[in-house]
């Protein structure tokens, strides 16, 4: 599908979800995107998509800062097996799928009475949200690990499905959701399961999936930025996942996007060390001798 066609489909879908009202002179005016006027189900569907492209734009501004890169800039074109235009097309296709499935998931909550919705708001305390975040993170990590690992170990699925994502030997932020549509569907189902098991409200899920989007994009950014707060709280980071995207780490570091616990438990954890690269930037290298033999 052409890039312009995919963008048109996504914009048409967004447009159909927003409320339009006729005012004097027959002019159409879009209702302002305020939390108080847009249903939570719509916000939960659209905001993570918006966050993806805003964060992508931020990382495009940071790309020229070579001293924080895990790979030289020129390697994006030399080593990657897919042009960036194709990456954008596939990401847009996945986001269309994501929006449709999210709409179906949230549809059952739209018919709640006003009283039920008010009660739901009152019961959603900060402690509840934190607890739901932790549950959703564990569920999502579990789904991602075992699906991701199986996609690597099943030769047919790797060659025909997951190898699409690994055309990016040198990851960049907006390639985070560059997947075969079938893998994209599996990821979306895992997200839906995390939402359901944790019992999140649509508003909470908007926050969670926006955060998940940022985390996944940061892991694929190819940048090791100083003071990155995500690196403080999560050992699963851009260097950890960069190891997985290299040929020597292809059977290791499957965990994503939050913790490394499943790699540690299942024996697929490849620790690394960061080294300054001549010419600027950093390079992640295997730390253990048995892993260094794979280089």
Automatic annotation (TrEMBL):
InterPro entries per the UniProt record, alphabetical: Fatty_acid_hydroxylase, Sterol_Desaturase_Related
Gene Ontology terms: biological process: lipid biosynthetic process
Family membership: Belongs to the sterol desaturase family.
Protein name in the entry: Fatty acid hydroxylase domain-containing protein
Keywords: Membrane, Transmembrane, Transmembrane helix
Originating species: Saponaria officinalis
Cellular component GO terms held in the UniProt record: membrane
Ranges of residues in domain Fatty acid hydroxylase: 133-268
Compartment annotation: Membrane
GO molecular function, one term: iron ion binding
Coiled coil ranges: none
Segments crossing the lipid bilayer: 42-62, 126-147
Transmembrane recorded as keyword: yes
